[in-house]
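Agenda item 2: zinc ion complex prediction
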Amino acid sequence: MKNALFHFKPLEFENMFSTDEDCLRFLAEEKWKDGYVCKKCGHTNFCSGKTPFSRRCTRCKHDESATAHTIFHRCKIQLTEAFHLAYAVCSTPKISSWELSRKLEKRQMTCWKLKKKITECIEKHGEFQFIELPLNSGTEKQIESGV
Ligand SMILES: [Zn+2]
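Presented output:
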């Protein structure tokens, strides 16, 4: 079971991800559960970085935020809202961006974009994934032309 997150009942979910900090901690734990490896130089020692739950390589000083390389990287809305949107999309795949927009009180376009990202992720991996897996080099082009 890779991502049991969306098997939570709504109330459990609510309690687990009530603050942005909860979400960041969760993403950091998911991302580095097999240990930290610097994306730039491959070093495995780190200290804490600039932002909460980020990690900084002690060799090249590359700072990786908790959201980098996750589906919520550069997300326009608050993380708690993004988590709620993902939860809604996973539990109700047919939910419209209008409904999401009303629920979260966010612009419809913002919801539409994030929903699209989540739906594409589910289609690609067969399930929701927080962490963006690196595509095997070489297969990237084939996927593009297959659309
Ligand atoms: Zn490094």
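Discussion summary: Residues 8-31+70-125 form one domain.
Owner for follow-up: CH.
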